[in-house]
Amino acid sequence: MTEQPMSEPPMSEPPSSAARARHGTDRSPGNLLLLVPLLMLVTPLWNHDEPRLFGLPMFYWSQFLFVPLGVVCVGLVVRAANRRERAATGSAADGTERKN
Amino acid sequence: MQWIEFGVFTALFLFVSVLGFAATHWRRAESMQHLDEWGLGGRKFGSWITWFLVGGDLYTAYTFVAVPALVFGAGAMGFFALPYTVVLYPLVLLPLLRMWSVSRVHGYVTPADYVRGRYGSPLLATLIAVTGIVATMPYIALQLAGLEAVLRTMGLNAGGLAGHAPLFIAFVVLALYTYQSGLRAPALIAFVKDLLIYVVILVAVFYLPSKLGGWGSIIDQSAETFSGPDSGGSILLGEHNQLQYATLALGSALALFLYPHSLTGILASSGRKVIRRNMVALPAYSFLLGMLALLGYAALAAGVEPIVNGATGEPDSNTIVPVLFDQMFSDWFAGLAYAAIGIGALVPAAIMSIAAANLWTRNIYKEHLRPGATPAQEAKQAKLASLVVKFGAVLSIVFIDPQFSIDMQLIGGVIVLQTLPAVAIALYTRWLHRWALVAGWTVGMAWGLWQLYLIPKDPATGEGHFGGSAMPLSDFSLFGWQPLPDVRTQIYVGAVALLLNLLVAVVLTPLLRWFGAAEGSDATAEADYYATEAPAGATEAAEAETSGETASR
C-alpha cells in the first residue's frame, strides 16, 4: 500500500497543494492507527477464563472491549481525514452531503 | 400453531411490505429508467440511511440465527463473528473510499465494472462478475433458511411442498416490491428491521441472564454440557484452533466487502464523509452480534432442543434462538423477535438480488450479449434478473437439501476472497499483470475448492465432503510435498488459497512483462481515487466509456 515514498508533512499541518495533487487527502502516517485493532487476532492475549467480569470469562469480555478500541482508532483517523479534506476543498466539501 | 406469535409476525410483515411498495416514491428521481436509480437508489443516501442499509445488509438474519447456533454447538469458536466484524472496519476504510471515488467518477455500479476499467480486460471482469454471482446466490438461499427457521418454530412446519408455501409467499411479495422500488425498498425497510432487532436483543441479553442465574452460571452450565463425552465444544479456544479462529476472522473480514452486495450499499452513499462516518458507527452492530452469540450459551443453559425440520426430518440447529424466545418470553414478544429475524432476512435478500442483477446486467448482458444497451434497457434487464435470482434461491431451498446451501455459503466465502488481488489490490497499484491475476484467480479457486471438497462431513468416519472451512496444516501439500507433516494446528482454507493466489500473481507478473504480454488500457487516473464529486458531465462520459462500441466508433 506504500508504493510511493511517504513524503507528506505530519498530520497536524495541512499538506501542500502539490502533495495533495499527487495523493489526495487519504494519505497520512496517522493511518497506522488502523493497525491497532488487528491485535485482536492475537488469540493468546485473551484466551483465558479468569479474570471474569459479570460472570463472563476473559475470552468474551476482552473481545467486547476491542469494539470501542476499534471505534476510537477508526474515529481518530476519520476525524483527521475529514479535517484534511475540508482544508483541501474549503466549503465545497459540504457539497458532498447534499440533502435532496 | 402459535397464533399470537404468528399474528404479530404477519402484522409486521404486512407493514414492511406496504413500505416496500411505497419506497418507489421516496426521494424519487425524475426517471427510474436508469440503473443508478433502481440499483443504487440514485447514489445519494446520507449517513443515517447508509448506516441502516449497510447494517441491514451485513448483519443478516442468517447471522442472527447461525452465529448463536454455532456457539450452541461449538462454543468459543462460534465467537469468531466478533473479531471478524471488529477488524473489518479499520481494514476496509481506506480501500472503500478509493473505490467510492473511482466509481463515482466513472459511473461504475459493480466491482467487475471497476476491474474492466482498470485492466481493460473483459475476461478478467467476467471472471470477477461470475465469482460474485456464484458467491451471492447461496447467500440469498441462506437468508431463506433463516426465515424458514422462524416460520417452522411458529408451527408452519409441514413436510413436502406445503411446508415451503409460507416461504414462497413471503418471497413473491419481496420479489414484487424489489422489482418496483429497487434499492429504495430495502433501504426503507432496514429502519424497521434494525429498530426491532436492537429492541429485541437488548431486552434478551439483560432479561435472560436474570432468569437463568447470571452469565457466570450460564457459562458454567455450558462448560459442563461441553464436557460430556460426545460434545465437540469448549468455552475457550483449544490448542489447535487458535490460528483457525484468527485466520477465519481475518479472511471473512477481507472477503465481506468483496461481496457485490456489500459494495452496493457503499456505492449508493452520497459522499466520502458518509462512508467515513459509517466506518465509525457500524461497529454498534458488531457489539450486538457479540451479545447475540452469547445467546447460544443461554440456549444451552435453558436446555433448548432444536426443532425437527418437517421437510428433512432432521433437527435444525438454526431454530435454537427462535425456540429460546418461545420458551422464555411471552408470545407477543416472541412474535416481535420472529418478525425482527424474518424482516432481517428480507432486507439483505433484496440487496443481494439487486447486486447480483447489477452484475448480470453490466458485466454479462451488456458486455457480451447486448453491447449497445441504453440505460433504460439496463434498468429493465436488471429488474428481470432480480426476479430470476430470487426464484432461483427459493427453488434451491425447496428442491435441494438446505445443508447444501450452507456448504455453498462456505465455498462462497473462499471463492469471493480470490477476487481480492484484482479488486482491492488494484485500488492501490496496477503492478500486477492482468494475465497474472487471471492465473492467480484460477489457482486460488481450484486449490480452495479442492481442499474444501477433501474436508470430511463426518470427522469421525472421514466420510462426506465440504464438512467445514478449516484444515490442519499437516494436510497442506504441493504436488505431494508436505512441508508441515506433523503440525495439527488448524487454519482457514480461504486464507491459504488467497496466499497461493497472490504468490502465483506476483511470480507471473515479471515473467509476463519480460515476454511482453499486452498490459491493457487503464481508464482510471490517480486523481479519480480521491475525487469527492463526479466531474460535470461525468454520466455521459462514463456511459461512452463503458459501452466500448460507441466509444470506438
TrEMBL record, chain A:
Pfam families with a match to the protein in the record: DUF3311
Transmembrane regions listed in the UniProt entry: 30-46, 58-78
The entry's keywords: Membrane, Transmembrane, Transmembrane helix
InterPro entries reported in the protein's UniProt record: DUF3311
Region (Disordered) location: 1-25
Name of the featured protein: DUF3311 domain-containing protein
Organism placement in taxonomy: Bacteria, Bacillati, Actinomycetota, Actinomycetes, Actinopolysporales
Automatic annotation (TrEMBL), chain B:
Keyword set includes Membrane: yes
GO CC, any one term: plasma membrane
GO MF, one example: transmembrane transporter activity
Membrane topology: Multi-pass membrane protein
Cellular compartments annotated: Membrane
Keywords assigned by UniProt, alphabetized: Membrane, Transmembrane, Transmembrane helix, Transport
Entry superkingdom: Bacteria
Positions of transmembrane segments: 6-24, 45-65, 71-94, 123-141, 161-179, 186-208, 245-268, 280-300, 332-361, 382-400, 406-428, 435-455, 491-512
Region (Disordered): 534-553
Coiled-coil region: none
PANTHER family, per database record: MONOCARBOXYLIC ACID PERMEASE (PTHR48086:SF8), SODIUM/PROLINE SYMPORTER-RELATED (PTHR48086)
NCBIfam families membership: monocarbox_MctP
Family membership noted in the UniProt record: Belongs to the sodium:solute symporter (SSF) (TC 2.A.21) family.
Protein name: Solute:Na+ symporter, SSS family
